[in-house]
Amino acid sequence: MDVPILHQQLTPVQIEAVEHFSGPMLVLAGPGSGKTRVVTHRVARLIEKGVKPWNILAITFTNKAAAEMSERLKTLTNSQNLWVSTFHRFCAHVLRQRAGVVGLQPNFTILDTADQKQAIRQVLSELDYDAAHYPPGKILAMISNAKNDMITAPMFVGQFEDSVADHFTAVVAKVYPAYQKYLLSSNAVDFDDLLLHVVHLFEEHDEIRSQYDDRYQYVLVDEYQDTNEAQYRIVRALSQNSRNLSVTGDPDQSIYGWRGAKIDNILKFEQDYQDTKIIKLEQNFRSSKLILAAADSLISHNRLRKAKELTTENAEGEPVELLHFPDSPVEADSIARHIRHTVESGERDWLDFAIFYRVNSISRQLELALGRHHVPYQVAAGVAFYQRAEVRDLLAYLDLVNNPQNRAAFVRVVNVPLRGIGKTSQSRLMNYAEDKGLTYIEAALQADEVPKMPKRAAASLKAFARMMENFSLADSGSVAQLIEDVVEKTGYTRPWSSSQNEQDMQRLANVEELISAARNHDTIFDADTSLEGFLETTSLVSDLDALEGDSEKGKVTLMTLHAAKGLEFPVVYIIGVEQNLLPHERSLREGNPREYEEERRLLFVGMTRAEERLYLTASSYRDLHGRSMPTIPSDFLSEIDLVQTDGTTLTSDFPETAYRPTSLASSDLSDEDVKAIRAALNRPDKPQLTTAAALLAGNNSAASLPFNFPIGSSVRHPRYGLGTVTAAGGFGHRRTVTVEFEEEDRSETFIVSKCPLQRIGNR
């Protein structure tokens, strides 16, 4: 390929980055500046200069980005030997080659979040702790944060085992090492272990590190501002022999500090690599001039950054608008009506619109309003395909075939479909396996020797174990055929096969889609590694990857600001730009300047997703924590060049629809409820943005309303078992709570006055 052809679609600054050959380079890439094009063209240029494709490693953060980059590179280079990977996939590859060094077998299982929670529940049970009082999700978050900071279980125990200030942390110090023992005995790892094990491989076995360093002589890392401590150390380990490291990123888009990302990795890059070449990509190809100017004026208030001046040759466009509403129901209804009217007038398509928010809980009223106005929408990070119950069940069967030591997979499917193997029988089997040093499958083959095991359960366990052995022996290398065999031999889909129930039909469709995905995988991968590769792919896919690959294009997209990173839309609404929401109350409460600046970066990322129109919204009252609360506008709004508008005028010229926003007078609340709410809220009739000073001077705070099930409280349901209240809404006899249940891995919403929930303890 001629050099001029490679350079045709590049700016002079982009060409400079592409032409860089040796030594470290930092590319500071503003939003919409074409950084993916720079990375792919640079790889193509390296190959053109004689670098072997297998000596190049390109790393990014999502499967979608890696796939997109791979496709571009195939077009540019016509090479099949290039490897573009995520950090986790790269580490999984290294671990399978060096599994024995860290005490694993090459066929280890990568546990997803649900399986990790199940593992924690079992560990808690073995340690005689109640999962209702020690939520597995919270424990996993603490363990994950520790692993991201390279704090191993023994190190964590040394720091916190005797903690008297924080009892919960002291419990985690007991759970963490037991959890790691559980993983090792199951020949399994979690996502964080993939990174942690590889760091230890590279840092404790220099000969292994050196082999990979010598192989990958050119390392390119995208989204470097999102790297955590473990990822930082992996990159360092691969850049000692050959220092041809190129990283691309933007400190202004570092928004994942809460999950371990360290902005200092990119801010101090030149200190780590002192002869670094720095290139700034400041030309934006996405947004209008006014949108870009507003975003730039916001982010300029941050101190933890590397200064850039964003420019664009796009049209000036329309001013950024701040829409303010009397309350959040009116906000939701006005946005829904505005979108529908714009589409029906022929100006836009549904897919042109996106609505972003800081926290998931405020999307509920939007979803209701969009539904009422017949606006098609999709919610990012909903129940992703590989997290659906029937898909997870079948994947658990495949996991057991691939890795018979996998305890979580065994527990998930040993009684699915129902085989008469209850929890007590399962517990007896597990204890027997522990005592004898057996896998659960091996113990199941000896079920009639397990003390106090009922004969029926023992027979079912032995039949199940023999069936799993037969699946392993009959494995032909085709993943699709194996799934079909599992479905047939277990009768998994039999209860739904003749059902006309929509949910059952959807379950069948999901099973068929899984088989289709497996067939596609069979055609790409060699038979001898097909099952292992398929399971790895399904384990590492993210919810956002699933959304981005969705074939449903004619829908409005709803998502959190964190999920919006890397996407772009012609029209963007960012709702709830209010104090305690954006910036989040945690950053204000703790007074941490770093957290506060990350909140500003989060708004910056959301704003720079917009191509042509950008609306920011705020309401005088918003439904939060089960109450309608008075709010004040975000301090960030004073840092942005924008036009303020009464949001209710957004749709004032539209034809009236059958639906009007629900008011207290028109609702089905009792008279007493209405009086109580009006007295508590003292709501103004017209929209107004209340300042903090005015709010304090008027003592205009919402009174506490009766609430038997606070968010975060532990509850028990006679059918679904233990759970935690995650959301609440409504008033009086219409009050509702949403509960996330542990055993069923499901979420349900109940009317408080009618539900059989029982509060547990004071939580």
TrEMBL record:
Gene3D superfamilies: 1.10.10.160, P-loop containing nucleotide triphosphate hydrolases (3.40.50.300), PCRA, domain 4 (1.10.486.10). The keyword Hydrolase applies. GO terms for molecular function: 3'-5' DNA helicase activity; ATP binding; ATP hydrolysis activity; DNA binding. Keywords: ATP-binding, DNA-binding, Helicase, Hydrolase, Isomerase, Nucleotide-binding. GO terms for cellular component: cytosol; DNA helicase complex. It catalyses: ATP + H2O = ADP + phosphate + H(+); Couples ATP hydrolysis with the unwinding of duplex DNA by translocating in the 3'-5' direction. CDD domains: DEXQc_UvrD, SF1_C_UvrD. Signal peptide: none annotated. It comes from the Bacteria. Its EC number is 5.6.2.4. ATP binds at residues 29-36. Residues 289-566 form the UvrD-like helicase C-terminal domain. This is DNA 3'-5' helicase. The gene is pcrA_1.
